[in-house]
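go over both lines:
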Amino acid sequence: MTLLLVSEVDCLSFQELNIKEEYRSLVDNVSKNFYYPILKNALSYDRAVGFFSSSALIAIADGLIPFVKNGGQMRLIASPKLSDEDIKTIEKGYKLRDEVVKSAVMRELYEPVDEKSSTRLNLLANLIADSRLNIKIAITEYKGKIGMYHEKMGVFKDTESNIIAFSGSMNETITAMSLNYESIDVYCSWKNVDDEKRVINKVQAFEKLWNDKASNISVKDFPEVKESIIEKYKKEIRSYDDFNQKDFNDEIEIENKLEIPENVPQIPDNFNLYNYQIEAIEEWAKKDYCGIFDMATGTGKTYTALAAIVKLSQHLNNKLAVIIVCPYQHLVEQWVEDIVKFNIKPIIAYSTSPQKDWKEKLDESVRDQKLGVRGRKFFCLVTTNATYAGKYVQNKIMRIRGNTLLIVDEAHNFGASSLKNKLHDKFQYRLALSATLDRHNDEEGTQALYHYFGEKCIEYPLERAIKEGKLTKYKYYPRIVSLAEEELEKYNSFTKEIIKCVKINKKGKREMTEKGKRLAIARARIVAGAINKISQLKEDIMHYVNDNHILVYCGATRILSNTEENSGADEEDIRQIDCVTNMLGNELNMKVSKFTSEEDMNERRVLKKEFSEGKNLQALIAIKCLDEGVNIPSIKTAFILASTTNPKEYIQRRGRVLRLSKGKEFAEIYDYIILPRPLNEVPGLTEDERKKELHLVKNELSRAEEFARLAYNSIESNSTLDDIRDTYDLFNVEFQEDGINE
């Protein structure tokens, strides 16, 4: 059945419309401000999108009613969602290609989820039946390899031959229109010569595609697909006038953009999420807003979490209390810098908070939310682990009556016994952030975290981040340093005492006594502060005395309790950092500064700025900052004196050095591998003596092997490590854990 003629509609010339050069989703309300006014006055619409799906068809129907009533004609080119198996099947034989492509397209035709979706799909099915909408499918073909067509562009024409062309990253899908904060660039044929040329290029490009004349791209008509759409979605309608406007343009009915209410989570202007961040948020939503973001350091966990707050807050009509917890005060302030960008006014809670009245603010917010005070149904508290665990905050949290979301940064810390009991059922919604959630030598604590937060919504490892350009590549230079004779004697003495402190627990497993743990920390200090590191550092850094953006990272072994909000350094830590500062500043005349807990937040802010500019400050000599989440993207060369066997620590340290920064093509990491003695002395040891030294050797190698694995110069760095493996015959020795590792 062909639909009756539509009612006559008066059209404006495109030149009478206020068309911007760029639109960003959500920020500009693309549907209302771009598609609708143009489609209302267009006679033809040509569109090349990303993937074909029923969701894409539903989104395309947005704003289409006036276009339909103009008698508008539309052509659509889309790409099938091909699986790896699909591509392999196609590449086996040309004859199978069309069947595989058709099958891939057909499986994306889902049943409509609601009446509105059904109505929109019905309209498109009728347009196809009336030959007013034609669809073709595109795939790329190059040297026998099959791919998916991803170009996104569109062309509108009006009654006066004015043309508007656009291109950009935004797919016409529901996700792109509502969550994927992306942009489109727009060109108008009448504005200037440059725009006119771009418009002509877009028109010609589309015509080449439509007529299957573009290089390395196959564009085909699949009648069966159109027939399936008609069969699946078409209902009997007397006239296009029977379609109700409100089923297509909810956002159009909204008046011009209202002023954003205060303290209601919103996506900032000019903000874009990467696809992996969007996927993480979508997966979190599917898991009832509970889960884990396992993302490499430097890949945007904070921004992803803040966008997740926006998603959940919108889902709950902004009736939500958000509690964000991070280890230290300066991390709270770092979060605050980003939180305020999302139109959130956080309550900043810790002992020396700049908000002196934070307790009153929290009490008032809990009360207002409970009473449902208009405009006060959302609030956000950002605090330290210690303040969160304190009686005052815990008492206020238990008084919250509405929806609550707990976000824990560096969530591995909450596997500790002193914090686990603060992971209570009060929070319906939960999000853990960590590059290394698994706790070192603490299976029970690790399991507690997974039990509370749920499954991983994303795993975005450092390897993938480097490959996809979200972190910079790096070169790794392991430097072999041996303990001094006196240090080796102390180390061996501690080892003998530690062995005596190993006991068998009730589960039949070896376990270290508290005394043994203290001795292990004291032994680790010897490695962290090995004196020979300093002379090797001086030799290495001589090549960089005229460079900038250098970090020298000194060792620290003091364990912080959960009642501490600042990460202080003790006498042993200061001794090494003072030695390095004197050497670089006085002996080598470099412009250097310490970066420790002794500097307050304002001083740190100034130092980071000076360091980034690289004019008055060449190097930072730091302690603990790489473990604490301090963000200094401009670090180009790092000398890591701190030795650690904890994967959580060394993985984080590496990730923070690899953050992207302008002019930073790659990073360089110097890592000081501590061995009991020079390698040339090892062959003279007895078998028993060599075995006793394997603990330290193996522990140092585990870190070095991980660093070398992803290094740009992996062959070179592994060559150095092979010298250690060969000397200690590690290729042939089975190393048994015996409970006395560091």
Q: What stands out?
A: The chain has three domains: 28-240, 275-466, 472-558+569-673.
